[in-house]
């Protein structure tokens, strides 16, 4: 008896031609591992010999005998084309395409059932239009699957693994798009399931977003092959393109005291700071014209074709937006609109729309109903970052409806430079805004991590979000000052306030320009104390961008990413090539390579490591390397080889917790060097376990440098899992307990003439960079976009000032008090 898993059924498909339909059904068989990709040629050749139309709108394409050796496992796939596709010269239209890959005669049972279906018009109609794959499974196999028929059911896929979502902002649209693209590019099926039992097909963006996955959510990933499972779990663990060292989303951002306040404003609107900047202007309400969507049913095939055209036109529009935004602000900003393209083609949404069309509704009404359901689902999610994705989907919905209704969007920019007030803005609205015609905006709703806020930052437009519905009552033309950094809109300011705001604007503008223009200057305090500002990167390909942003070297190369982004261990040669490329690109600037830090949240499934109950406290980092010389030795050899040609190579070991750890690692490396005739390489220890900080005095004489990993040092000192969503706001490296350990480390290093760097997230934090310098740190290794800002912040203070601040910080009761100490210096022209 042959079974028909859900992955071999595609409902609500559209096909432009018979060949297209055959290609789609063949792709299902390929994806499920039934046939090799060339089988489709056999299916097409067979159609040339004999038409496979069975009758009643059903066809059974299958390969020629010559292509039988491309069959790996007998199976059938069903493509439902509710709008029909022309099959033969006789003009017959097919709505059910049953692709057959039969190595023997196991499929005969299904053919027998098909002939029974043929005789039952009502059943044919049902199978040609159903949106429930279980109907097809039941009709063709005689069994109705108990589960796995709805998006929220469990998985029927054989290979499973557990992962913890590491993304600071949870599974938002960009990583979800990356996941869908990965699964599609490799073929096959993947489901993500939560402990609660809800699950989603990884290629369906809406389903994945609706799971509401926040950082640290345990997930079961299931796939139909072990290779696909490994690729997907690796990609999830490495963040699907997100920067995992970024600070986790905070639901209520720390409110900074404003750098500037007016003396005599009429009223102040308080919101959440979303994009920095200060502007003076008049307000204008932005109310997008409501779209008039009526239910005007038409011929279902024509309505489906209109949907197809509208989706294609919206996709083309998004292509233009992507290239415009990419050219102006870089491809990272445009990624939001690539996620929109993904939402546009979301299979579930298209299927639901088609189902409604088949129920007798007009296309615009059907599309709006299908997307409204999903928007409502997203809005219900607890996590504000994920709930903000409802705005993205509304944006996509409006784009498609405009196409269906033939409406051009009113120009948001019309009317000259204003401070725009709106209930919320979609990312598209925001991308259409420009600093030439718009001064900034305030929205009643929204959040600081919404894409609208991200685009505003890219455009350099000050923005305040979540200011409450009161902003919608402010009359057009009200004079106002918008302070994006403070999250405030001041209404009816006095002449003197306007004057003082303009002066402050000038200062801010000069600061920004100065930071960018001075990004190539060496990092130093105002009185010239040198602090090297380096970049954390994972790949040689990122080195040039880091240098262009002003990096003075690479303070942390996380080598585990070479292992995480693939299915097998990179060879010694492959590793050597990567390290060599990076060493060469840096043209003599330091390159600090960290040996493998696998374990904890960084799991590599293909290594077959034993499960650990407390993975952060187990065989992680150097401890694992001691157990696995098959991994450690090739890596050390690759580094030693590169060091023979590049004296800028440094090496450091992660998760050192005892003196013996370091001595043992050094001895192994010394042996490797001796074997290869490689020179001495500066050796460092990462200080990321409290015990290492406490024995820094013993370690210091033996090392060349220390690099403090504040991410781990904070989690181990405060006993707070760095991925724990509820503890995220307390897991702050500015806690005086962590600062004490850093101070101990620096003092020990100083006594032995060694230097200390910081490569954890605190180095790029505006308070962290200053306090760490005050504590005596000599190198700050940060993510590339933070480099110019960190250098500029350092230049504003003398070392003496920072040392005094650091001393005070050590005596504070908590991280909040530490942060409150480090206020920016009062700028000229400020009134408070
Ligand atoms: C750290 O722990 O601060 C660090 C830099 O290492 P990772 O984030 O890779 O654990
Ligand atoms: Mg670490």
Automatic annotation (TrEMBL):
Group of enzyme by EC? transferase
MF terms (GO), sorted A to Z = kinase activity; metal ion binding; phosphoenolpyruvate-protein phosphotransferase activity
Annotated HPr domain ranges read: 158-243
Q: Report if keyword Membrane is assigned.
A: no
Q: What SUPFAM superfamilies has UniProt attached to this entry?
A: Enzyme I of the PEP:sugar phosphotransferase system HPr-binding (sub)domain, HPr-like, Phoshotransferase/anion transport protein, Phosphoenolpyruvate/pyruvate domain, Phosphohistidine domain
This protein's major location comes to cytoplasm
Q: Which reactions appear under catalytic activity for this entry?
A: L-histidyl-[protein] + phosphoenolpyruvate = N(pros)-phospho-L-histidyl-[protein] + pyruvate
Q: What is its EC number?
A: 2.7.3.9
Cofactor or coenzyme needed: Mg(2+)
Where it sits in the cell: the answer is: Cytoplasm
Which PROSITE patterns does this one have?
A: PEP_ENZYMES_2, PEP_ENZYMES_PHOS_SITE, PTS_EIIA_TYPE_2, PTS_EIIA_TYPE_2_HIS, PTS_HPR_DOM, PTS_HPR_HIS
All copies of the PTS EIIA type-2 domain together span: 2-143
Could you tell me which InterPro entries the record lists for this protein?
Answer: HPr-like (IPR000032), HPr-like_sf (IPR035895), PEP-util_enz_mobile_dom (IPR008279), PEP-utilizing_PTS_enzyme (IPR050499), PEP_util_AS (IPR018274), PEP_util_C (IPR000121), PEP_util_CS (IPR023151), Phosphohistidine_dom_sf (IPR036637)
Which keywords has UniProt assigned to this entry? Cytoplasm, Kinase, Magnesium, Metal-binding, Phosphoprotein, Phosphotransferase system, Pyruvate, Sugar transport, Transferase, Transport
Per the UniProt entry, what are the Gene Ontology biological process annotations, in alphabetical order?
phosphoenolpyruvate-dependent sugar phosphotransferase system
**Does Transferase show up as a keyword for this record?**
yes
The record ties this protein, via NCBIfam families, to: PTS_I_fam
Q: What is stated as this protein's family in its record?
A: Belongs to the PEP-utilizing enzyme family.
Q: What is this protein called?
A: phosphoenolpyruvate--protein phosphotransferase
